Amino acid sequence: MSASVRLRFATMADAERLLHWRNDADTRRFSLNPEQVTEQQHRHWLQQSLSNPQRRLYIAEYAGQPVGTVRVDSTADSHRISWTVAAECRGKGLAKAMVKLLVSQLTGKIIAEILSDNIASARVAEFAGLTYQYTHNGIMYYAYQTPG
To answer: What CATH number does the domain containing 35 carry?
Structure first.
């Protein structure tokens, strides 16, 4: 399945889809920020994200259809990654494929912060090569250091 998952940069044209994914009940339940966001808040966030050189926001596509999103926030020291899969696309291995693809494009230290009861995302992180480091305040920290 991973061979046919591809990542493309998100654009403002993806705003409605990203907002729908963001406000999905399960997405919010497993998000570090579980609050529902308004369209205005989301559009402002998306505009800021797309113009931020330290952030890359991608739409994952499978068989030509948008199935989720992955994000990377980079500093000089590390890359912090996060992801969401569309509700109708969950349980098909797509998160594993899209996160592994993202990780394969990064160099240096890669970090994921996952709520301690989000077992599915912990498995995704491990599949992508990240290993559990520790838990603090209900958040599990996973990391991977690329070779070289």
So the answer is: 3.40.630.30
Global pTM value: 0.92
- Of 79, 54, 82, the residue nearest 68 (C-alpha): 82
- pLDDT per residue over 115-140, tens digit each? 999 999 999 999 999 999 999 999 99
Quick: pLDDT tens for 86-111.
999 999 999 999 999 999 999 999 99
Report how many domains make up the chain.
1
Domain ranges, residue 79: 2-145
